[in-house]
Design brief:
This protein is α+β, with helices and mostly antiparallel strands and 146 residues long. It is built from three helices and six strands. Strands 1-2-3 form a three-stranded antiparallel sheet, with no helix packed on it. Strands 4-5-6 form a three-stranded mixed sheet, covered by helices on one side. Helix 1 packs across helix 2.
Length: 146
């Protein structure tokens, strides 16, 4: 790993794994963690896949907005991250996959794809996952979030 100066380091602490609690030491975030019902859990809290989806969608959208600013393009953006946990036959465990659905207000699908591809190359989450998990980037027409 190349040594570089850390611009920021986030810290989170979990107790109880998938059936516990996670928080930041500064108290700015705390969440009850529970395995989803689909995996035999109680489903009475957030789960790691949801938390990953929240982080990835926010990071990717920031990268997308950065690329739009560089190109002097204005428009609202939306990124939906669907994070799935899948069986991994290689070790009888599990692995993640992600589908990112990207839209940009007042842009054609071709233009949206161009900016989504640029964001995918730039986003730190995309860099971290590249070659490790399957990530698919889809573009759709922009519509206001419900």
């Amino acid at each position: 790993m190349t040594e570089s100066k850390n611009l920021y380091t986030a810290k989170a602490i979990n107790t109880g794994g998938r059936n516990g609690e996670s928080h930041t030491p500064d108290g700015s975030f705390s969440v009850r963690v529970s395995a989803p019902k689909e995996m035999g859990g109680a489903g009475q809290g957030s789960n790691p896949e949801q938390l990953f989806a929240l982080g990835y969608s926010a990071c990717f959208n920031s990268a997308l907005e950065h690329k739009l600013r560089e190109a002097k393009v204005k428009g609202k953006t939306q990124v939906e991250a669907d994070v799935s946990i899948n069986p991994d036959p290689a070790d009888n465990g599990y692995k993640l996959s992600v589908v990112l659905t990207v839209s940009i207000e007042n842009q054609t699908l071709a233009e949206t794809q161009k900016f989504a591809d640029q964001a995918h190359s730039f986003c730190p989450y995309s860099k971290a996952t590249r070659g490790n998990i399957d990530v698919k980037v889809l573009v759709v027409e922009y519509k206001e979030a419900e």
